[in-house]
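Check these lines:
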Amino acid sequence: MSDEKPRKPLTRAETEVMNILWDSPLALAVRQIVERYAEPQPAVTTVGTFLRILEAKGYVEHRRMAGASGRTFVYMPTMTRDKYLALVMGEVRDSLFGRSAKKLCSYFIEHEDLSDEDLMEIMALIEQRKE
């Protein structure tokens, strides 16, 4: 979907809501989303506000809950977590690392506290990529 319009980035609070939706195999109602938060849980109205913002930004859509009367809606993401991660990391690569994936990877290898096991896994991924 290269013709997809750019979306505003997610705030930390919006990302929390999206992670709950991405982790669920089913569409969720506002109360179901709130129940999946760790304590202290936010107010239902707060999560409802986040969902309206996320919908305006194009990250979620809603539909009336099956069998429900009134205004009970369920929400589902319009993009996968992997797609969002690719967009965010692409933006970081382009804006902070001069469009260089090598510089991006080098940064994490040099600045993160990686265990020997982590480094071995990274090297194995590189070897797989070479094949």
User: Anything to note?
Assistant: The CA atoms of residues 71 and 101 lie 46 Å apart. The longest strand covers residues 60-64. DSSP finds six helices and two strands in the chain. The mean pLDDT is 92.
